[in-house]
Amino acid sequence: EALWCVVPAAGRGMRMGADCPKQYLPLAGKPLIAHTLERLAAHPRIAGLLVVLGARDELWPGIETLHGKPVRVAIGGAERSDSVLAGLNALPSEVENADFVLVHDAARPCVRAKDITQLIERASETDGGLLGAPLRDTLKRAGEGDCSLATEPRDQRWRAFTPQMFRRGELVAALGAVSNHGRAVSDEAMAMELAGFRPLLVEGAEDNIKVTTAADLALAEFLLARTA
Ligand code: CTP
Ligand code: MG
After folding, report:
1. Which residues are 132's β-sheet partners?
2. Which residues pair with 204 in a beta bridge?
3. Where are the beta strands (DSSP E) in the chain?
């Protein structure tokens, strides 16, 4: 059974500091977001895409179908969690509250099909989960003046990626609860943790980078060619 994927693309790319939001920067001959959507739509387990755009987005190319799958749009909000919530609420009526949905950053164009498959297969057996990878570097806790105060244990520390997969109704409730309490969450899994769930961490390739700075663009171009 196939799932819908919400793609938050309403950010402004402040850290990139380009003339346009980073999702529209050219990458290997087309806008960055086109690579992300292409990989998602090509996946056999994905039924449709719900792309969340900024309120005054004039660069969205107006894609309506991709690989024969519907591509819908919604308007996002100030925080990523607002954008995801808007996307979840704009899913077509065929998507039920009990259905799993995926959420994948527009800014992660290098996601691999086999990792999406792994996430769907493994997290379907649970209340949901996310792609990530165990931390590889030694982790320091910094104090004032960037002095290292302590070395944190590295075991049981993971970096969180997307896609993340949860049941639509449970994720809407979890994101709604954090927004009512005025709390910021950096990903869907954090909202689910606060709601008492224990999302499954599914190890994925490290090359599923979130393009954040100009250097990441060059790396993404290399990775895209390598993992096509
Ligand atoms: N995003 C969104 N709505 C927001 C903020 C972010 O849909 N209000 C999306 C971004 O477009 C991106 C993903 O969430 O695809 C991850 O966010 P991030 O990498 O932080 O992108 P930006 O917020 O655009 O970048 P920055 O934080 O540097 O401004
Ligand atoms: Mg941001």
Report:
1. 160, 203
2. none
3. 3-9, 26-27, 30-31, 46-53, 65-66, 69-75, 100-103, 128-134, 139-142, 148-152, 158-167, 200-203
3-state secondary structure of 39: helix
Over residues 208-219, the mean pLDDT reads: 97
Measured distance CA(9)–CA(195) in Å, rounded: 25
Instruction: State whether residue 147 is helix, strand or coil.
Output: coil
Q: Distance between terminal CA atoms of the chain?
A: 25
182 has a pLDDT exceeding 90: no
Assessment of whether the complete model's pTM goes beyond 0.95: yes
Confidence check: pLDDT of 228 > 80: no
Determine which residue's CA is closest to atom 16 belonging to ligand 1.
105
Q: Is the ipTM of this complex over 0.95?
A: yes
Is the pLDDT at 194 greater than 80? The verdict is yes
Give the model confidence (pLDDT) of 94-112 as tens digits: 999 999 999 999 999 999 9
Sorting pLDDT into bands at 50, 70 and 90, what band is 161?
very high
In contact, 59 and 24? CB cutoff 8 Å:
yes
Mutation test of ligand 1: which of 5, 7, 12 has the most ligand atoms closer than 8 Å to its C-beta? 12
Ligand 2 centroid – CA 68 distance (Å) = 31
Domains, in order of start, for the chain: 3-227 (3.90.550.10)
**Ligand 2 centre and the CA of 224: distance in Å?**
22
Radius of gyration of the chain (CA): 17
